[in-house]
Amino acid sequence: MPSNYDKYPFIRVSDRSADCPAGWSAITGEIDRRLQLSDPQAAARIIVIECYQGVHEAEITSALTTKYPAAECLLSSAAMLPEDVINAFFQPDITDDELFGYMTRHTIDRFFDAEKVTALRARIRAVRQGVVILVGAGAAHIWPEADILIYADMARWEIQQRFRRNEASNLGVTNPQERTSLQYKRAFFVDWRICDRFKKSLMKSWDYVLDTNVAGHPQMITGALFRKGLAQAAGRPFRVAPFFDPGPWGGQWLKEVCDLDREAVNFAWGFDCVPEENSLLFGFGDLRFELPAIDLVFAHPQELLGVPVYGRFGDEFPIRFDFLDTMQGGNLSLQVHPLTEYIREKFGMYYTQDESYYLLDAGEDAVVYLGLKDGIDPAQMLAALHDAQQSGQFDAEAYTGKYPVKKHDHVLIPGGTVHCSGNNSMVLEISATPFIFTFKLWDWGRLGLDGRPRPINIAHGEKVIQWNRTEAWVKRELVNRIETLRQEDGLREERTGLHEQEFIETRRHWFTRPALHHTDGGVNVLNLVEGREVIVESPRQAFEPVVVHYAETFIVPAAVGAYTIRPYGESEGKECATLKAFVRHHA
């Protein structure tokens, strides 16, 4: 049966392609139209283009100076501190660790030299007529009162691709040739935190937003349409745009089910609900405008997350769904995630990566490594892990529990639990959002796709492993703790997890008729784990019906309230199942 997985889900904002000027000629034409409407008595017209990290600033300046050849074109980077000063200042947050830094507390002004900023402002004031163009990260810090404020946004997935292609540098430095993993770490802990803080302070005043994700093919919408689209998304079920990546253990399942490149070696990861890194697509006629999904979290945190969740996590999206494909692949690394107090102290995060594995599919030999063997000696296991880094040999089964798994099993993995998905599994990973904090203990003696050994983190791992999580505890607490909550004709609701130590609750609904759900004041995240397609509807017609296909993850904002899900199309009359996650809270 052909795949019906939608790789490009979008929210229709307008039926008019003209609402989204595409290409530099159309974009600069719209800017020129706007300039003609501004105050005719103004001495000079100042266009400020604030850029997210990773945006190709040279492309923007080239396009605008072509349109306005007499313009004074300035770069915010001209007022930044020297690179060695920036590096030294942020080193405590960047750290010397291969993978991990510290979540910076700083803001955009820390990149700038006060004297240079004063001089650049004086240069702008000195222009008596014509157009001044100021471009770059921090441009709106240098000149807050623009005649036109344009925000050039960038999806995190595209930033990562630019790192891999040596096309992008970190904020305030020129390092396109630095190893991709180090650039990503610096962006995660420093650049993106600072850009996001500044972005949030500006969002309500944007005149235009630029989609700069495809080099040479920009698109632009007004700030009003940007805000309209976000308001629509906050009041209806929606999907973010998924992306997929190969890995040293990757499998073949995603290729078929999600209709991916059959010529690719494998796909290991599928990210279809990580709003910090996924994009939202807005529809304008036949055009699709891409923006970071995190913009929605920043703009409408209470409507999206709900008051209790927003009160607990702020404007962060705390639930993550992603795919781990090892079908005809290999084992994941043997790993452990930090405890809450450890991640707070060492990395500046205030909640940890508790998670679970839901088996979307499994081969007959599928297993998970989970917890520890009864009676093991922790010192002996740690010594064996250290020795394995030299010998290339580690007997995982001598130290860790190994459990067979099948389709629709659910395995719970609170922080501090040693774990690993084996080969021939298709895992829907449901977790809290701090998703890079994986301490690898053993990687089966293999290399990453870059030909380098993937970093091992025994020094971190040994400080958080919960040595009392052995076989009896694991079987009782973590494997298939499934409880039927209600059963009616054509409907069964089950609690499947997560563990009491984790803040996420999951419910599975099996249904042949409409199943009524309610957000109960908190965001819901769901995946269609059984059935070809279903339709999500509002009992009070508050939103247009949304069709969801097998394996697609979708988000239901807290503001939606009641919604129903029923079999649709080819699934009518057949049993379907969704898995729903939400943050536990008391009304």
Indicate the topology.
Layout: E1 11-14, H1 24-37, E2 45-51, H2 57-67, E3 72-75, H3 83-94, H4 114-125, E4 131-136, H5 139-142, E5 148-153, H6 156-164, H7 180-202, E6 208-211, E7 219-222, H8 223-233, E8 243-245, H9 253-257, E9 269-273, E10 279-284, E11 287-292, H10 294-299, H11 301-305, H12 307-313, E12 319-325, E13 334-336, H13 340-347, E14 355-362, E15 367-372, H14 378-391, E16 400-404, E17 410-413, E18 419-421, E19 425-432, E20 439-442, H15 458-461, H16 471-477, E21 483-488, E22 491-497, E23 504-511, E24 515-518, E25 524-530, E26 533-537, E27 546-549, E28 553-556, E29 562-567, E30 576-583
Parallel strand pairs: 1-10, 2-4, 2-5, 3-4, 5-6
Antiparallel strand pairs: 6-7, 8-9, 9-12, 10-11, 12-19, 13-20, 14-17, 14-19, 15-16, 15-18, 21-22, 22-23, 23-30, 24-29, 25-28, 25-30, 26-27, 26-29
Give structural notes.
It is a single chain. The chain is an alpha+beta fold. The radius of gyration is 25 Å and the shape is globular.
Portion in helices: 25-40%
User: How much strand content do the residues show?
Assistant: 25-35%
> How would you describe the shape?
globular
Q: Helical region count?
A: 16
Brief digest:
The chain has 587 residues and is of the alpha+beta class.
Identify the notable features of this structure and list them briefly.
six-stranded antiparallel beta sheet; alpha+beta; six-stranded mixed beta sheet; 26% helix; 587 residues
